[in-house]
Amino acid sequence: MLNYLDKIKNTESGNFFLMAGPCAIEGEDIAMRIAEKIISITDKLQIPYIFKGSYRKANRSKGSSFTGIGDEKALRILERIGREFNVPTVTDIHESGEAAMAAAYVDVLQIPAFLCRQTDLLIAAAETGKVVNVKKGQFLSAGSMKFVVEKVKEAGNNKVILTDRGNTFGYQDLIVDYRGLPEMQSFGVPVVMDCTHSLQQPNQASGVTGGKPELILTIAKAAIAVGADGLFIETHPDPANAKSDGANMLHLDLLEETLTKLIRIRQAIL
């Protein structure tokens, strides 16, 4: 993603950019269908788009939870989406040794929130030369992310994005502090609001994370109103039967209406 800052922050439309897709790569057919649908919407609305899909889910509540279809198989699906639809792709990595492997297939390496302080992981991601999207830990202040940005840049990579996904609020809920978005923007990097994971309800007695997807538009509206550069939305044509994080996903059929409303807010504050 050459000149990625210009591409995602200074588009002709003035729109925010979007990272969206399924939580996990469940298979080639469904991933391609989701990508095709989202791209038809973002092209229509002139929204810069990055396809999101995890090639493996390492952080699961229960050992029996779905983790993936196989690393290489999922990464090749991400590569095909990027090539056939001519869009950048993003996936998360969990250990330093995964950075170079994933970088061979995708354009953006994402550091999960729980791992955002892992120095070796940040450096390994930075050294690939790919864009590095770091999710802010639920346990960290926005100001603390300054040091995350410094780690990546000191490793020789200035292509950093920060993504907010809420803060721990008690044992089974999260809350979004919107003051953090402009604070993180002051570090000179684009800032994204994760509109789906910020509505998770973790640590449920069932061992399956809950969520409040009916509030996705509320979270997104507020983020755009305070000037977020981009949005992160996990979406699926059948969230109830998604293999991962279905409880807080946006139904794919609702995406165009949601984005259309958000564009109106964006236009109003420009």
From TrEMBL:
The keyword Cytoplasm applies. Keywords: Cytoplasm, Transferase. Residues 12-263 form the DAHP synthetase I/KDSA domain. GO terms for biological process: lipopolysaccharide biosynthetic process. SUPFAM superfamilies: Aldolase (SSF51569). Pfam families: DAHP_synth_1 (PF00793). The keyword Zinc does not apply. It comes from the Bacteria. It is found in: Cytoplasm. It is an enzyme of class 2 (transferase). Its main location: cytoplasm. Its EC number is 2.5.1.55. It catalyses: D-arabinose 5-phosphate + phosphoenolpyruvate + H2O = 3-deoxy-alpha-D-manno-2-octulosonate-8-phosphate + phosphate. InterPro entries: Aldolase_TIM, DAHP1/KDSA, KDO8P_synthase. GO terms for molecular function: 3-deoxy-8-phosphooctulonate synthase activity. This is 3-deoxy-8-phosphooctulonate synthase. It comes from Pedobacter paludis.
